[in-house]
Amino acid sequence: MATDITTALRAPQNVQLAAIATDATPGYDGDKRSAEDDLAGGVERLSELQERLFAASRAGGVRRVLLVLQAMDTAGKGGIVRHVVGAVDPQGVQLAAFKKPTPEELAHHFLWRIEQRLPEPGMIGVFDRSHYEDVLIGRVRQLAPVDEIEKRYGEIVDFERRVADSGTVIVKVMLHVGRDEQKARLRERLDRPDKHWKYNPGDVDERMLWNDYQQAYELAISRTDAEHAPWFIVPADRKWYARLAVQHLLLQALESIDPQWPAADFDIDVEKQRLAAS
Q1: What is the pTM of this model?
Q2: Collapsing DSSP states into helix, strand and coil, what is residue 39?
Q3: Who is most buried in 74, 157, 237, 245, counting CB within 10 A?
Q4: What is the band of 169 on the pLDDT scale with cuts at 50, 70, 90?
């Protein structure tokens, strides 16, 4: 993996998704086979950093990581969760998959339910969809007035700044799948009985609004990209690349924290003597 992949994936100002190839592999010159080897090679480092982060929290550390995954249907969020995040100790991961808000959630501010699922110190939190649904589907489906959507962008920026200030490294990823690739993946779900459970007729309804969603994503990314909560656009037509890229971003987030093993709060020599005598 090239060292400049983070720069290559960072969302540009006034992003135009149509100008970003969904089958590209920014920052990586290898093929699928080499990517699979590199992904496996990164697991040990990711696991060690995750364990160090968890251990540090037991000694009072407050640092944590939040990975936000947003995408059109079939873009591969589930694969990222299984093949990247799933490679570490599950005790150190908190996954939140946000669905349609419940009546209770709708009775509160739109960020209320998000606040409840923020990762605890020492954890890697993963949002499978997130508060961005409220400015994506909310805009496309006109579930809120335009002025309310505009207000939410600012509220999200303020919210994420507060979360970052609390010790959280935020990594926001938009898995950028192509329209033709999405169609092929939906067709595969229809062709394979073992994938019928994944198919939702509503996915085609959302697909009919593709251009509207692309514009909604562009607006959301442009309005909420910030140093304390950066957006990364990961081409997702090649699943092997998307998984490797997200692993790289997670590794970089953990390395920026550089969690250390906590020092023993007991006399090691005394405990060795006691153990030997037991």
Answers
A1: 0.95
A2: helix
A3: 245
A4: very high
Strand order in the sheet with 124-128: 93-97, 124-128, 64-71, 168-176, 231-235
**In this structure, how many other beta carbons lie within 10 angstroms of the beta carbon of residue 32?**
13
Q: What are the structural domains of the chain?
A: 5-277 (3.40.50.300)
Neighbours of 219 (CB within 10 A): 17
- C-alpha 206/C-alpha 204 separation (Å) is 5
Q: Does 1 have pLDDT greater than 80?
A: no
**CA–CA distance, 140 with 134 (Å, rounded to integer):** 10
pLDDT of residue 2: 47
Q: In the chain, where does DSSP find H-type helix?
A: 5-9, 32-57, 77-83, 103-106, 112-116, 133-140, 146-165, 179-191, 201-207, 210-224, 239-257, 268-277
Residues 6+ apart with CB under 8 A from 229: 157, 160, 161, 163, 164, 170, 172
pLDDT in tens, 111-132: 999 999 999 999 999 999 999 9
Q: Which residue has the tokens 């890229």?
A: 245
Inter-residue contact 71 to 177 (CB < 8 Å): yes
